Amino acid sequence: MKGLDKELKKIAQFANTQRLKKEEYFNHNLIIGFRLFSLLAVHFFLSIIVLYISFLPATILIILNGHIIYYYLVLTVHEGSHDMLFFSKNKKTSLMIRRLLPTFPTLIGFPTFTVYLRDHMLHHKYLSEKEDPQNSSKLNFRKIPLFYFLRKRPKYPLKHFIDNTNLFIFIPAFFLKIAHIVLLYALGGVIGIIIGLGIPLLIASGFNALRISFRHYNLYPNPKPLRSRSYTFFGSSILGPLGLKYHFEHHLFCYIPSYRLKKIYDFVEDNCPEKLINKIHYKHFKLRDFW
Questions:
Q1: DSSP annotation of 196
Q2: What residue numbers bound the domain in which 110 lies?
Q3: One domain, residues 113 and 155
Q4: CA–CA gap between residue 231 and residue 228 (Å, rounded)
Q5: Cβ(11)–Cβ(264) under 8 Å?
Q6: Are 88 and 100 spatial neighbours (Cβ–Cβ below 8 Å)?
Q7: pLDDT given for residue 145 in this prediction
Q8: CA 154, CA 18: separation in Å to the nearest integer?
């Protein structure tokens, strides 16, 4: 697209005003920590309460639990992979926090942070190219439920996991999750594990597959920045919590906290050509675009 570099430069100048300032770190970390703790507590509560209620409300709560797992994993692994989960003014503290992050996904479900870290960094480097482990340029809407499980991943040597993990914290967190599974088994047997954790994890995987698809499907072989789009159709916040539905803006400025991406989205809407906006801002869901 002609003039794309000029438009991107204009957007970048505004995006720099949205960087998190050092004096804002404390409030940011407090809010993120509260969200993580709340989501974790609700997940544990729902996984147990569904064992004691009737079928219809249990079904609703299982779906809700699946979305909570999805929300929690998106918050930890996506924001964490860009070093935006917690901020510190001290570089050594930042490294320590980075090595604590794998603990958080362990507390609620899998995959681990380090697996996602490699996937997601490669994705940003090879957006929609053959080497991209999240490449959805050839994805069909009918295949979405299988996408999360069938996509090919690079190998993950044990050294990569150890180098990115604080094992002193990770090991007790892992056993805490095992204790949760044992508790579900004690309260409801195998069925307790299935409806308390297994099915919600599958639902979370489905949300994740849909999220990846809406962001990138059918945009290849555009120039790399245009192979990602923001989606703001009705209900899109369910698939893109925390402002991650503004994904074009995220790919350009992955150092901006997700909850500030809307301001960049609005700037693009107000200051960029309609041709560019129509390409990168998906506002009205149409099934034929994915079928």
A1: I
A2: 24-221
A3: yes
A4: 10
A5: yes
A6: no
A7: 47
A8: 34
pTM of this structure: 0.90
pLDDT in tens, 1-53: 567 889 999 999 999 999 999 999 999 999 999 999 999 999 999 999 999 99
Q: Check whether residue 238 and residue 199 sit in a common domain.
A: no
**Element (DSSP H or E) covering residue 281:** strand 281-282
Q: How many domains does one find in the chain?
A: 2
CA distances from 105 to 49, 189, 196 (A): 22, 24, 17
Q: Does residue 93 sit in the same domain as residue 203? A: yes
Sign of the torsion angle spanned by Cα atoms 82, 86, 88, 90:
negative
pLDDT of 48-92, one tens digit each? 999 999 999 999 999 999 999 999 998 998 899 898 899 988 888
Average pLDDT over residues 248-255: 94
The pair of structure tokens assigned to 114 is 């380090």
Radius of gyration for the alpha carbons in the chain, expressed in angstroms and rounded: 20
Q: Are 8 and 273 in contact (CB under 8 A)?
A: no
Are residues 207 and 141 part of one domain? yes
Give the Cα-Cα-Cα angle 249, 119, 171 (nearest 5 degrees).
Answer: 115
Type of residue at 255? Y
- Close Cβ partners of 100 (under 8 Å, ≥ 6 residues apart): 166, 169
Q: State the pLDDT at residue 260.
A: 93
